Amino acid sequence: MRKVPISMLEPEMSLGKSIYNGDSLLLRRGIANLHRYINKLTELDIGHVYIDDEISEGIEVHDAISEDTRNKCKTALSTTFAHVLENDPNKNAIDIEELSDVVDVMIAEILSQPNIVISLQDIGSSRDETLLHSVNSTVYGLVLANRIGINTVAMRDLAQGLLLHDIGKVLLDQEILYKSVALTREEFDHIKQHTKLGYEILKKDPVLTEMTRRVALDHHERLDGSGYAGSRGDELNLLVRISSIVDAYEALTVNRCYRKGYTPSKAADILTADAVDKLDAELLGRFFQCIAIYPNGSLLKLSNGKYAAVKEQNTGVPFRPVIRMIEIEGGKQVAGEEINLAHTLNITVVEDDPDLIANLIKDEMARTKEN
Ligand SMILES: [Fe+2]
Ligand SMILES: [Fe+2]
Known about the structure:
about 15% strand; 5-stranded antiparallel beta sheet; alpha+beta
């Protein structure tokens, strides 16, 4: 399968990965004639989908956990968020048993694939932003933790912390949280409250560890003291340092109501610039070994003026994957030859913005159709 902007959907493409709205199924994998659903997808603010077509044949997009586990995790978390909103003083908002069960499955699945390079980006409606962000950050965090050899007890603390790190956002004014224009000073101060609010919610649960709660409290702190509360350096434990990286990366790569998501390569550039003073540079370097800079199934424009879909990664050479050329003939995209960029050094990637490339491809399709 491969990922395309919805503006590029053609009748010969079928859905490569089911789309969920929260934890309920919206469109099932395999559905054809996807262009009929463009309005529905636009309404839900879903700009890209995974599809199957001739070009994507044999392209696998790896996820670190199964779809079933991802869905169970979303269900457990959305129940928790709903309980926090109910704010019943006699009830513990966090169903720790359900969350622990799903965390254990996530950890087992991630431990079973120690060398995974993540290409998949979970696609969902921006209305579920906090839910999707929490699950994605947890997956990234666990993959990184596994890569650096953290023990499973600490992995469990990390996973619970990351799943619940933004739980305080549930109690914020949702209109301010999802505002599409710049926030005023007061509004930003309001958003900043979510770390403390989250910590207070987690403190009410006697089973969660202080390490877990710290992830909620400190994930916006930075090593140079420039974060929300000004904590710095040694005050930030390893799990918090991991969380700051994966939280920032996840937030950069998804569409937000005020800006389009960055590609992994651009997000990596931004975080690298930040790492000098703010993030743990060594951990960040290890994190970049866990994620695909040009993910499998993504669109590229090359220095020879042609287009391609990423087929697979070359270990240790993140900027030079194996690609499948996309030829445009008679108004259609057809699969071209496969090229291993690690061996073909005269071709480089010049663009990876999918929307921009989709427009260029569409222009060329229109041109070749006329001729
Ligand atoms: Fe946060
Ligand atoms: Fe976050």
